[in-house]
Amino acid sequence: MKLSTKGRYAVMAMADLGTNSSGSPVSLADIAERQEISLSYLEQLFGKLRKAGIVKSVRGPGGGYLMARENGRIRISDIVLAVDEPLTATRCSNNSSEGCRSDKSRCLTHDLWQALSHQIYLYLNSITLEDVCEGNIPGSRPGVFPEDDSATFAAE
Known about the structure:
It contains seven helices and two strands. By secondary structure, it is mainly alpha-helical. A two-stranded antiparallel sheet has the order 1-2. A hairpin with a 5-residue loop joins strand 1 and strand 2.
């Protein structure tokens, strides 16, 4: 499963907003430049984030976006779900009793992928925007998730 640019860019932009706001509105043009994200794409994402009540817009000169609530009360899962990013590793439609196979049955590994989807949601729901802005991400320390273990397992 790979998170699409929608979810990744929304979290990047929100972290930028959370880091650079200091109580005054931040323009999307500034976020776009700092994060190297298309301004028109950010406008689409922030429209969804505003509708979800995560950010609020300020019009006029010096306008831009502000957090609608404190960084510590915004969960990463809120951001991802607000931009319509599904947190699912199955091929099946979310909240559907039907499976993804041609006869509408579930594949043999459905429960595995559904459990993974649930774990991804729980993880993203356990991290706040404040955690991201302050660099307090569980499991992000070197050595916690070794990248070279594939050679170890292949040799066994």
